[in-house]
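pinging the channel bc i need a second pair of eyes. not urgent but kinda urgent?? the chain im working w is below, pasted from the shared doc
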Amino acid sequence: MAQFRDQKLLDKIAARLKDLREERGVSQETVYHELDIHIARIEVGKVNISVSTLSRLCEYFDIGLAEFFSELE
């Protein structure tokens, strides 16, 4: 089964994550060292991020998934 990829949605998610990271003054390197997640690849929309990874990033940025997605619309 092929994986579906919605590039417009991935771009919105990428921008939102980048905004959250920058608002908190955290570098991509810090996120990688603290979570072992390559957020740089996610922030440019190259990765079809899993819900589990997004959930972990939301926890790190102290935001719920519902709030995260409410900001995308």
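so The chain has one domain: 7-70. and DSSP finds five helices and no strands in the chain. — does that match what u expected or am i reading it wrong
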